[in-house]
Request: fold
Amino acid sequence: MKSNTGKSDGTVNKRIVFAGLMLFYLVMLLILALYVANLRRKTFTVRGSMHDIGNPGITLEGERSKQWHEGNKDPFDCGMEYDFKVINGGKRRLYNWRAEIVFSKDFDIDSCWNGEFNKVDHTLVVRPSEENEGVDRGKEGTFGLVMMTFEDESAEEYRLSYRLDVHLTQSPLFWLLLAGMGLTLAVFAADKVNEAKYNKLKAKQDEIRGILQESFETFAHIIDAKDPYTRGHSLRVAHYAKLIAGEMGYSEDEQERVYWIGMLHDIGKIGVTDLILQKPGKLDNEEYSLIQTHVDVGGRILKDFKALNGIAEGAKYHHERWDGKGYSTHRMGRDIPEIARIICVADSFDAMTSPRVYRKALSVEYATMELKSCAGTQFDPDIVPVMLKLIEQGLVPVEVGE
Ligand SMILES: [Fe+2]
Reply:
């Protein structure tokens, strides 16, 4: 449940991050589109003197290419031909331009080309002809006229207004935002694919774990079926051993391993005759010796079970005592594998608190006292307090497998 909640929180967080990023990109794109639309509607103006030639950027230049006298037209007896050019030294194509050129004196328009010309006082107002309407970046738009005027006439100042041909796709920011959106989508899609793969793998893993769980429980039932007075014993020992391992700081996977090992700790009883296991009354020494062989039999049965580390040790050493007086190897202290020392405490507690053929179940209080008094002799003195804590917390005993 814990991991599912974490996973679901993670998925929600990823969705929030994805939605946030996409919203950010969309808002930025909208702002950029509005900015570009505004730029397209805007009319730019540049002013200057006709005598300043070679201005950078967008400018207007003109020169008087011809001049002649006609002598009989007073006062405009002088003919002049002017050639102008709109120079686009900017970064974008300009269009819809209009030029106003102020002359020093009055004049008449005789003829003109590449535009529509009007005169307001001393000012020549020019609108380009259709084919001359736009000027690409780095290019020039030319126009000109022949005018009748005074001999000392000259063009003085100009005012050039225009619009810029800007598009959203010309902005590097537009492509950056699109790339960002694409990358976000790709990462999210890849994550979705990975998540689907993970879920499939997890489902398969859960299925295998379920099969393992049921297999182990079935084995435990087979073991416990040998002795009707120990029904549910293997499952309870497994449960207690897992709780002890949890208190000792084992990881969840390790606790599960301890649980499975606990279930098969008495597997050696399969090799002990039912006549002894099910004998009413106390066992004699020979029968007791036969019962004791279950630890070596269990160890042998499980010796090739390499996938579950410690399972053979759990079966073989769980009747060893801390003081070395157990069976069958008489190992002592920390020479006894920890898994066996854990199972020993769990096993003894359940043995005491379960009914036997020759006695009723002993009380939890009695079992608690026994654990305390045998800590350091029969039991690992570090594991007993862990078991006592579990008892105090009410986690032990439980009715498992009844
Ligand atoms: Fe046992």
